[in-house]
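ok so I'm stuck.
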Amino acid sequence: MSQSYLIRSVEPSDAAAIHRIKTAPGVYPDTLQLPHQPLSVTEKQLNERPANIHQLVACADGEVVGSAGLIVNEGMRVRHSADLFLVVRDDWQGKGVGGALMRAVVDLADNWLGLIRIELKVIHDNARAIALYEKFGFEYEGRLRQEQLRAGKLEDVLVMGRLNWPRRAEA
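replied:
not stuck anymore, here's the structure
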């Protein structure tokens, strides 16, 4: 039986939990986060979150165990698209948190924000994340060579995208 998670909008009071996730040794190497980011940075991000950022958290037993969201592009000709971000606490990885967050984010994009395109970047050797994204319809679109510095080594990053064209009424 799979675990169910409470998915809700992030609150400023979640800053410490989000900070713990983003700075964990099993998480930050696969993100663009630095290993010793201060809590104040996360607090500022949550307190000053712009309207185009839609961030969700997954909770288990009253604790925040993951976060995902969309950064909707604001330009007139790209408002139909957004960038996706996702982090799961290292001790909760592989337990369905990412899938629960992805279901909620895709639903938000498709059914509430009217987005046609979601894109993301993922480090080339993060097989678990790549498999999750593919499960939700993301496809490989390109490779950015030596894009991200990780532990002193430049690593390739994959660009993935998901298209959801609006359904047209059948005549």
